[in-house]
Amino acid sequence: xxxxxxLRAVIEAIQAGKTVEKAFMQKxxxxxxxxxxxxxxxxxxxxxSFVPVEKLDRLSKNQNHQGVVAQISPIKYHEAEVLIDExxxxxxxxxxxxxxxxxxxxxxxxxxxxxxxxxVDAIIVPKAGSASLNADAIKTSAGAAFKxxxxxxxxxxxxxxxxxxxxxxxxxxxxxxxxxxxxxDLNKGTAIxxxxxxxxxxxxxxxxVDAKAKLxxxxxxxxLNVSVACGAFLYExxxxxx
Length: 242
Prior knowledge:
Layout: E1 2-5, H1 7-15, E2 20-26, H2 32-43, E3 48-51, H3 53-59, E4 68-72, H4 80-90, E5 95-100, H5 105-117, E6 122-126, H6 135-140, E7 150-153, H7 156-165, E8 169-173, E9 190-195, H8 203-206, E10 211-213, H9 226-241
Parallel strand pairs: 2-3, 5-6, 5-9, 6-7, 8-9, 8-10
Antiparallel strand pairs: 1-4, 2-4
Helix pairs in contact: 1-2, 5-9
């Protein structure tokens, strides 16, 4: 992932349509250029962290960053409405993967790799609060991040309502159910939802999904790593569709 720094440079990158993955801004910035940049960041819903100047010095390698450093995404994200419509018009039983605030970049990369190997048609992530698609994520994905379409949406629930309009069922991976994965019919248009490492799928999302499913666990540890659990869910979809 490349970095750019300087108020005017970041403003021009956003205006030129570059995909800014995240902006790091110095605490306490003021001025007209800062106000212009801040307006663009809010307009494009760009993830932002306000950090001390020492971190910006490290990110920019002590160059004149003017209080802002931005990470430019190595991929172009797809528009969810356009891509979902295109996929659903071509495939009878599409398979989507929705990641509800996965925060670990290596988990993110591993999930992308497994998704590409299992024939997932697209991955959908929220614009804010998720892991960045940085060098570690891309390396862990073994290049799959360049092969599999990824969409960013304002809210996961927006994506689910859109899926429902195409009669795509939503299946959430959660321990808050009595149903195991092996009781759910995945041999039809499906969106599998995997939750964050610390809290799982958001309760507000669980309220609107079509089905909930869990993996049976027989050891003393009560949960699996999210990338491992995701692999189990995706390969069960593969098994049912063979």
